[in-house]
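so ive been stuck on this for like two days lol. basically i have the seq below and the ligand is 2-acetamido-2-deoxy-beta-D-glucopyranose, smiles is in there too. i just want the complex predicted, nothing fancy, no docking runs or whatever. if the output looks off dont worry ill sanity check it later, just need somthing to start from for the group meeting slides
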Amino acid sequence: MAGCGSWVFLLTVCAVSVFGAKAEIKFTIPVGKLFTYELKRETFQSEFEPLSKLYAGRLYDDPMTFKCNKQNFPDLPEWLRFTQRHPFDNGFLYGTPTSPGKSIIEIYAVNKRSYETARHILVLKVTAEKMLPYQAEFFLKLREIEKVLPSSVQDEIKQDLQKLWDTEALEMVNISNALDQGGRVPLPLAGHFEGVYVKVGSEQYFSDCLQRVLTPEHQRQCTAGAKVKVPGGCNFCSIPSNCITWCKTELFDLTKLEPEPPAPTMGSGILDAGIDFDPPESPPSRDYFPDYMVTVIVPLILAIILCALLAYIMFCRREGVAKRNARTNQIQLYHQHTIHENTDELRNMAGNRGVPPPLSTLPMFNYRTGERASPLQSDSPSIPLIMAQHDPYSDTLPRK
Ligand SMILES: *[C@@H]1O[C@H](CO)[C@@H](O)[C@H](O)[C@H]1NC(C)=O
């Protein structure tokens, strides 16, 4: 038993040093056929900790994310898409090449527990092949792209469609997320799915069942919005989630496509000898004066009028100080004056030291004459606190 274990160990070490160091996987894909490649987490896991299972007897199941791009480019080729729902799920590279060529795809896996990375190289050689002339697209409402891409599920779907098409010679042409074709993001509830479009192709013409899609009756039913079921005898889906939405079925007959018009032939760029160059006539002269009037003169006149109006309002219609004073209540004006005078007094006092204390600090005084009134006299409620003798505003103030 121990001997067997050490052999396995040795083989693993060899396998890791041979494949792990320079993992390069090659595929040859024909144009117009679906290509799917599953990025298996197990594969990368065994690369991150190749000996942990044998040595420590423990196998990790780490979350992983993948980053895929064409070598020396930031992104994948146009036709290739990548999807991974969750770091605990496998990732998928899938798509349908449209033109022959060779692409080298780099796959970086990041272990989200240890933050180790691993790199794989995928070499995809796309070979030219004739497109399948008859193609049909079906919509699977109760599916999500990651659940359809595993080859076992693809085979199940294909088997149903082979019965519907009534032929064995059927090829997957495209599988795409309904979100990529303008579908809506579903509610995050059970029983709501994004939906998947599956396109298949064949050399054989559409079966009678499929030809019903082309009838005017089918179109009328579907535009009416009623829930149209797959017609009897044509319903072959064995697994409910693989059932197609009949109204979203579309048939493509590529034999009926018109050939593209030939590209225009380019000349040499040199005129034939003997022909004189005839320059094009200069265009008729144009009168720009009305345009000038509208774009320059009219706004200018408007601006001048506005300026004049503003100047009149600012300079000719302003109220002067005298006018404002005349309108103001006398008591209010008087109040303002005393504030000004007190301020002046305080300013003067600040100018030199040793001045007598300000009059306003004395218990009772006439602020103009400095005359002190006797406290007895001023206690009388009939005498105002402020004596108003020789006061310019005295006409509004109460008199003694
Ligand atoms: C496959 O489907 C995708 C998504 O709708 C689309 O962009 C792409 O052109 C399709 N490829 C072919 C070959 O039909």
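The two ends are 130 Å apart (CA to CA). The longest helix spans residues 289-316.
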